[in-house]
Write a structure and sequence with these properties.
208 residues, alpha+beta, DNA Binding (I), subunit A, 2 domains, 7 helices
């Protein structure tokens, strides 16, 4: 039951825009408090369910789609984890920017030195300023790359051109959060795709 309660659920605001991903535990809490409703994308279209209705159709879903859901066992019944829930009284939108951090730069560059092209363990990687700080280089997505210690030392306080070195890929802000790649079940995948796009959410969906 613990694992099922940790299952990711997509949370929408009142205007049906994706806000964040929450745990099934949090989603059920919102449903029980009547602060949200279940949104289900079905073959005949989109349907909404309050918590009571979601409990009422649990047996039918288990019979028809039992292997497509994660299930939470309660003392009285077994409930499918809803793929999407919508808040009734929240209409704020999520921030669009992916945080600039060492962890995200390493993930964007796939732990690969952007000069020699080799993959390294985290402890063997550094962050290099393409345009060096001594020459006015700033801390931006477009000016920071992964570099191994050897290449970073060779480049020193020079630009790649001055050091006669070439970047294997031009650095840029990732469209998708490099650390937010989720593998989800078929029901989640179908339901989430109806509400996610890069205009307001940066998550890469991978179907299990």
């Amino acid at each position: 039951m613990g694992a099922a309660l940790d299952e990711p659920v997509l949370l929408l605001n009142r205007l049906y825009a994706a806000v964040r991903i929450v745990s099934a535990r949090r989603a059920f809490s919102l449903l029980c408090k009547q602060l949200a409703e279940v949104i289900a994308v079905e073959e005949e279209g989109m349907r909404t369910y309050d918590f009571a209705d979601w409990c009422d159709i649990a047996d039918v879903r288990r019979e028809l789609e039992g292997d497509q859901y994660r299930w939470v066992q309660t003392p009285r019944l077994k409930l499918p984890v809803p793929p999407v829930v919508r808040l009734f009284s929240y209409d704020k939108f999520p921030k669009l920017e992916t945080k600039l951090s060492r962890r995200n730069i390493f993930a964007r560059d796939e732990h690969r030195c952007q000069y020699c092209g080799q993959r390294f363990r985290l402890k063997d990687l550094t962050i290099d300023h393409v345009n060096p700080r001594v020459q006015g280089g700033e801390n931006t997505w477009e000016n920071l790359v992964c570099a191994c210690y050897k290449c970073n030392a060779k480049k020193g306080g020079r630009t790649p051109g001055q050091a006669n070195m070439m970047l294997i890929r031009k650095p840029q802000r990732p469209k998708v959060d490099p650390n937010r790649k989720l593998r989800v079940g078929p029901v989640q995948f179908r339901s989430w795709k109806a509400f996610l796009n890069n205009a307001y959410w940066n998550v890469e969906l991978r179907e299990s």
